[in-house]
Amino acid sequence: MIARILATAATEARIASRNRWVAIAVLLMLVFSLVLAAAGSAPSGALGADRLSVTVASLTSLSVYLVPLIALLMSFDAIAGEVERGTLPLLLTYPVARWEVLLGKLLAHLGVLTLAIVAGFGAAAIAALFTDAGAVAGLAALWRLTWSAVLLGATFLSAGYALSALARRPSAAAGLAIGLWLGFVVLYDLGLLAAIVADDGGVFTTRVFPVALLANPADAFRLFNLAASQATAAAAGVGAAAAAIPLWQSLLSILLWPVAALGLATLAFRKVTP
Amino acid sequence: MTSTLTISHLTKTFDGLAALSDVSLHVAAGERVALLGHNGAGKSTMMKIILGLIAADKGDVTVCGAAPGSAEARAQVAYLPENTAFHPALTGLEQITHYLRLRGESPGQAIGLLDRVGLGHAAKRRIGTYSKGMRQRVGLAQALIGHPKLLVLDEPTSGLDPVSRRDFYALLDGLAAEGAAILLSSHALTEVEARTDRLLILSKGKLVASGTMPDLRRDAALPVALHITPCNGYAPDLMAAFPGATLLRGDVHLTCAQGEKLGLLAQIAAQHSKVADVEIIPPSLEDIYSHFSRRDGQ
Ligand SMILES: Nc1ncnc2c1ncn2[C@@H]1O[C@H](COP(=O)(O)OP(=O)(O)OP(=O)(O)O)[C@@H](O)[C@H]1O
Ligand SMILES: [Mg+2]
After folding, report:
1. Cβ within 8 Å of residue A137, ≥6 positions away
2. What is the largest CA-CA distance in chain B?
3. Fold observed for domain B223-282
4. How many A-B residue pairs are in contact by the CB < 8 A criterion?
5. Which one, out of A29, A230, B63, B116, has a CA that is 20 to 30 A from the CA of A238?
6. Strands of the sheet with B17-28, listed across from one edge
7. Contact state of B102 with A4 under an 8 Å Cβ cutoff
8. Ligand 1 pocket check for B37: Cβ under 6 Å
9. What are the domain boundaries of chain A?
């Protein structure tokens, strides 16, 4: 079982590097992280936070958009591509379970994504440490951001596999992936914001809103990192209600989402007849 | 002999269209069986059902004592799909290594397998740069992994040059001698006749014939043709002697049932002074095949 998962992961990693996905992902994360680090290096004085903590706050906002995007771009083709190339029937006659195939792909893609995240965050951290000796205080926050970004990536990679299995055609899967990204990362928050404004501090804001934030892996990720670094009010925009959510709840959400998404992907993949 | 593959009363319908109806057959260990049939006869569909890729509507299929597609069956069955495809970014060596690992075999065998199908020289090139026949050989190489008990090969020789075809059948002989059961589909009648033990003919999803080539030849009982070359000027005499004969470019053409062949030859021998030459033309493979394949009024 382990051998088959690792074999799949090794082959997928090779394909990802030949398709330039490793280079593209690393480059994207590096460029955006360094741009943010440069923007954050203007003297901010009054804030009182160390430079790295400030960088982590902006990296959090960046990751909410960029990590799901890269993850979906890497994963939407995973099953639909095999269907289109005609490689799936043969694969499915091998003594390998479908969940093993998915887990192998996930390991490889997550490896690439982790590499990109570490490169990007690492570069930003070095820039911060270079200009501010006190920045070591932010290392804990950076570490937390790194592993939670990897979990966020795992969630959206798995979601991408699920869409890929549902769509069965790469072009349709790409459309669904973009839709999912827009929905979860952009429209979801806009919708919540609009609802809060309309609700004006009523039952939606106090009861529904916190649950809605936790139900979205991207929001849970943002919540977790900002709450942990106590910068919620500054960056989240929807301060008070979000700050009231205990840390363990957002932690639970970011831990459960990858498992749930992979489960959904496996179910969707089971339904694919080659 | 034990039966490696047993199919009984298999039926499969796609949206009201019967792809397979009430097909029963078996393939024994060490047997090479060819599956013939017109385009859309249901050959590939049957193979996919044997592999558990698609489910049957009715009927029983037993593969090496297990259900099709079960982990037990998959561990013992090798498949070569109709249109073999691989990831273009991988090299032949990497692709075969991957398949070896999935079957729990040592990756070190990869180069040996590629050599067996004559791809050793291209092992380190990407499959995207391979020709069609070379891709087909990668497909063959993966089907040889780990002594499978049953090989299901969908048009294995399509895209192969004549020499490679001969090498391929030599490989099959070796596998069958080791006890593997082989079911292959093909449109190449001559090679299939010479290199397999038994033929199955599917027509519109029905199994219309099964047996060795001599069996089928006998069952079809197609007429034999005789061509007589008359001595100068004797054509009209011969035409008169054999009512029902036709004259074609100076030759007298006759047909008769298998059983009447010797009697007719004796009659021709009686006219030997007027006959320059006689040729007996048995029904061709194509004739026999069409006889079975079209029997349902296609
Ligand atoms: N997935 C499918 N959906 C609907 N119909 C199908 C499907 N697969 C096969 N068929 C139909 O089933 C019939 C048998 O197809 P099959 O592919 O088994 O033919 P074949 O004997 O392999 O033909 P060929 O010699 O061209 O490869 C055809 O009429 C085909 O249209
Ligand atoms: Mg076919």
Report:
1. A50, A52, A53
2. 76
3. Alpha-Beta Plaits (3.30.70)
4. 71
5. A29
6. B17-28, B3-14, B58-63
7. yes
8. yes
9. 2-270
Q: Is the ipTM of this complex over 0.85?
A: yes
- The highest-level CATH class for domain B3-218 is alpha beta
| Subunit contact A18:B89, Cβ cutoff 8 A | yes
A15, A86, A89: residue with CB nearest B53: A89
Q: Is B101 on the interface with A (CB under 8 A)?
A: yes
* C-alpha–C-alpha distance, residues A66 and A158, integer Å: 16
Q: Are B26 and B171 in contact (CB under 8 A)?
A: no
Nearest beta carbon to residue A15 from set B89, B139, B142: B89
Mind giving me the DSSP string for A113-145? HHHHHHHHHHHHHHHHHHH-GGGGGGHHHHHHH
> In chain A, which residue's Cα lies nearest the Cα of B90?
A15
Q: Estimate the crossing angle of helix A139-167 against helix A217-228, to 10 degrees.
A: 180
Percent of chain A at pLDDT > 90 equals 61
d(CA B72, CA B75): 5
Q: What number does the ligand 1 atom closest to the CA of B12 have?
A: 12
Query: Which residues fall within 8 angstroms of residue A35, CB to CB, at 6 or more apart?
Result: none
Low-confidence ranges of chain A (pLDDT < 70): 40-49, 228-242
Cβ–Cβ gap B77/A93 under 8 Å: yes
Query: Ligand 1 pocket, B4 CB below 6 A?
Result: no
Distance from residue B44's CA to the centre of ligand 1 (Å): 7
- Answering whether pTM is above 0.80, one says yes
User: In angstroms, what separates the C-alpha of B125 from chain A's closest C-alpha?
Assistant: 13
Domain regions of chain B by residue span: 3-218, 223-282
Chain B residues within an 8 Å CB radius of A274 = 48, 53-54
Q: Report d(CA B13, CA B33) in Å as an integer.
A: 24
Task: Using a CB–CB cutoff of 8 Å, tell me whether A270 touches chain B.
Answer: no
Mean pLDDT for the stretch of residues B7-18:
93
Contact B87 A87 (CB under 8 A): yes
Give the other-Cβ count within 10 Å of B144's Cβ.
Answer: 21
The whole-angstrom separation of Cα B242 and Cα B245 is: 6
Q: Which DSSP category does B42 fall into?
A: S
Task: Name the 3-class secondary structure at B68.
Answer: coil
B48 part of contact set with chain A, CB < 8 Å: yes
Q: Are A242 and A213 in contact (CB under 8 A)?
A: yes
Model pLDDT, residue A43 = 54
- Looking at every residue in chain B, the average pLDDT score rounds to 91
